[in-house]
Please model this.
Amino acid sequence: MHGQTARSLSIPEPGLHDKKLLPSNLRSLTSFTRNYGMNVDGHTNTLVQVASHTPFLEQLHLRGVFHFPVTEQIQPLRLAYLREVDLTRATISYRDFQYLCGVLCESPVAILGIHLRKPLAEWQSALPVFPVLRRLIFCGDPTIAHDFLERLPKSTLANFTIEHEDCMAEPNAYGSLLDLLHERFSDSLKSMHLDIGDPPIDAHNFLAYTLAGLIPLVRSGVEELRYTMYIDVSALPEVLQRALDPSWWPTLRVFLFSRQSQRLSRRQLEERKKLWGPFFQQFAPVWENVPAVEGAN
Model:
C-alpha cells in the first residue's frame, strides 16, 4: 500500500489500536461496532487513533452503537482534510452527539448525515457546531431537526435534506422547520429535499401546508426543490396538481416531485432484501411443498 493512495477502508471496532490498519494516506474510513457493552474510552480512542494516524482523511462513517464520555472539557481533534461525516447508521444519544460536535468543531466538515432519535436536551457545549457545514442530510423527526438547525451558524448551509423517520408527519412541525430555515439560512440555502415517504393521515392538507411554507424560501433564493411522498397525484385537488408541476415554480432551476422515497429506512430494507434474498429463495421450493395446516384460514 506504500506509494499508493488508500482510498477506502472498513474495519470493526473496538479501538483501532493497530496502526497498521490505518495507513497514513487513507481517505475514507468506515468504523462499525458490534459490542453493546464497550466502554466510552474505547470509542473515544477510536477518534484519537483516526486523528493520529490518518491526517489526510476526507470521509468518516460510523455505524452501530457509539458512546462517548459526558464531560464539559472536550478537546477538539484536528482533521484538516475531513469533509464528510456520516452518522445516519450510528446509534448515539444527544450527549454522545454533543461530544462528537465538539471533537470535530475544528475540522472543515462540509457534508453531514445524521439520524437523531431524541431531542437535543441540555446542550452545554460552547464550542461551534460544524462551522463550515454546507450540506445536511437529516434523518428523523422534524422537531429534532429544528433543534439541531438552531445550533448551526447562520451563513453556511446551502443544501438541506430531511428524510422523515420515527414519528407521524405533522404539518405544524414542518411549518416550524421551514420557518426556521427561512429565518436563519435564506441567504445561503440553495437546494432542499423533503422526503416524507408514506403520506400522513391528511395528506392533502399536509402537502398544501408544506408547499405554502416553501414559497418564502424559493423567493429568498432556493434554486432546487425536491419533494418526495408516496401519494396518488391524480387524486389530488386540481390546484395541488398544478402546484406539483415545474411550471408552477418558474424561478427554480430544478423542481422534482417523486413518489419513490429513498429514505434511510427504505434503503436499509432494500439492503436486507439483497443480503437475505438469496438465502430465502433457496428454500422457496421447500415452502411450496409444505402441506397446509388443517383448519387454517
Summary: The radius of gyration is 22 Å. The mean pLDDT is 83. The first helix runs from residue 40 to 53.
